[in-house]
């Protein structure tokens, strides 16, 4: 049986990490509200330290580590944002950090991770490849592993996004959250439902990488045999066992959005909302704009904008329809 996190777990994590993070703003958009017929609120984690929500979880994990583990150092694998989160958290705690990233990782994220003082090792084509390699290094160097999504301590930190959101806008009807491995939506769903169980939680996955939706349909975690175009933060071949069980219990629906629609939403958000967001963050806006999340007219809808670590050089070579 899954030991679900309670409100005190999220409150405790919130207190531990508060000195080291921003309480990010909740923004409104008249344009988005008019186009959707709802009152839309945006939890802007693009303004978080290190550029995304991902710094929250590692800070809580490291706060729980023994002095012996801290001295040995930590290791993680990441597509980019978790890498920066772990690297920044490790620097705050004075802990050496090793980060294994796939060769598909964006240069902007590699440079940022190194800038926080971490040792970066590139391996494999996707996160899952980097993960397997990181386990070998962990064993060889006797490091402590910081999982990017399947650790309740990390999820308690990530859930602060949802906790802050519902504290600032307590009468939300629906909250839309991007899904990669499931850590963010697990934390947000448990924290928000602990505050208000009536809030509807909807997850968004990329159409070409629907690991969580396929797992929910199968009733158990499945590994994807192939994955679609790379959308940072939305691509894993296998979601977490813990996060799967939480999503199964706490998330009301999962929708899939085409990768082109996500890229289009990145540009739309820059042009119309004046916000620079990465693909995973834009996915929630894309799902709302494309009518994939049915919400009664006039209801309050929240979109989690998970980060703003966009590699702008990627935009130059893409044809926008």
Please sum up the structure shown.
The protein has 321 residues and is of the alpha/beta class. It is 45% helix and 15% strand. The chain folds into 2 domains: 7-53 and 152-316, Rossmann fold (3-Layer(aba) Sandwich), CATH 3.40.50; 55-145, Rossmann fold (3-Layer(aba) Sandwich).
List the helices and strands and how they pair.
Elements: H1 7-17, E1 26-28, H2 30-36, E2 39-44, H3 56-63, H4 67-72, E3 74-78, H5 81-93, E4 97-101, H6 107-115, E5 119-122, H7 127-141, E6 144-145, H8 152-158, H9 160-168, E7 174-178, H10 183-195, E8 200-206, H11 211-218, H12 241-250, E9 253-257, H13 259-273, H14 279-289, E10 300-305, H15 313-316
Parallel strand pairs: 2-10, 3-4, 3-6, 4-5, 7-8, 7-10, 8-9
Antiparallel strand pairs: 1-2
Helix pairs in contact: 1-3, 3-5, 3-8, 5-6, 8-10, 9-10, 10-12, 13-14
According to CATH, the fold-level topology of the largest domain is Rossmann fold
User: Fraction of residues in helices?
Assistant: 40-55%
CATH class annotation of the largest domain = Alpha Beta
Count of helical segments? 15
The string of secondary-structure elements, in order, is HEHEHHEHEHEHEHHEHEHHEHHEH
Number of domains: 2
Overall CATH architecture of the largest domain: 3-Layer(aba) Sandwich
Shape: globular
* Unreliable sequence segments: none
What is the distance, rounded to the nearest whole angstrom, between the alpha carbons of the first and last residues?
47 Å
User: How many strands appear in the DSSP assignment?
Assistant: 10
Average pLDDT, all residues: 93
Q: Which strand order do you get reading across the main beta sheet? A: 1-2-10-7-8-9
Strand content: 5-15%
Structural class call reads alpha/beta
Task: Report the C-alpha radius of gyration, rounded.
Answer: 18 Å
Summarize the biggest pleated sheet: 6 strands, mixed
């Amino acid at each position: 049986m899954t030991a679900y996190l309670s409100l005190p777990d999220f409150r405790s994590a919130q207190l531990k990490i508060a000195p080291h993070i921003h309480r990010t703003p909740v923004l409104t958009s008249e344009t988005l509200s008019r186009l959707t017929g709802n009152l839309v609120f945006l939890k802007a984690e693009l303004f978080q330290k290190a550029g995304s929500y991902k710094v929250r979880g590692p800070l809580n994990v490291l706060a729980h580590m023994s002095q012996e583990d801290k001295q040995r150092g930590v290791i993680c694998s990441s597509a980019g944002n978790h890498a920066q989160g772990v690297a920044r958290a490790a620097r705050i705690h004075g802990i050496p950090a090793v980060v294994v990233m796939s060769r598909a990782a964006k240069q902007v994220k590699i440079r940022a991770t190194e800038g926080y003082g971490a040792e970066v090792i590139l391996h494999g084509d996707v996160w899952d490849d980097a993960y397997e390699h990181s386990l070998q290094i962990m064993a060889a160097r006797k490091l402590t592993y910081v999982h990017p999504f399947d650790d309740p301590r990390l999820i308690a930190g990530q859930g602060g996004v949802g906790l802050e959101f519902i504290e600032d806008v307590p009468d939300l009807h629906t909250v839309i959250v991007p899904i990669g491995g499931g850590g963010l939506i697990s934390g947000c769903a448990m924290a928000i439902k602990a505050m208000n169980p009536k809030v509807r939680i909807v997850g968004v996955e990329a159409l070409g990488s629907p690991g969580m939706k396929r797992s929910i349909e199968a009733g158990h975690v499945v590994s994807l045999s192939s994955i679609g175009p790379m959308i940072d933060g939305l691509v894993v071949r296998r979601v977490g066992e813990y996060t799967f069980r939480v999503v199964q219990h706490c998330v009301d629906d999962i929708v899939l959005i085409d990768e082109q629609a996500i890229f289009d939403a990145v540009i739309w958000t820059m042009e119309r909302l004046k916000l620079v967001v990465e693909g995973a963050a834009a996915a929630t806006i894309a799902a709302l704009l494309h009518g994939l999340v049915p919400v009664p007219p006039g209801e309050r809808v929240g979109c989690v904008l998970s980060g703003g670590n966009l590699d702008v050089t990627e935009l130059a070579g893409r044809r926008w329809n």
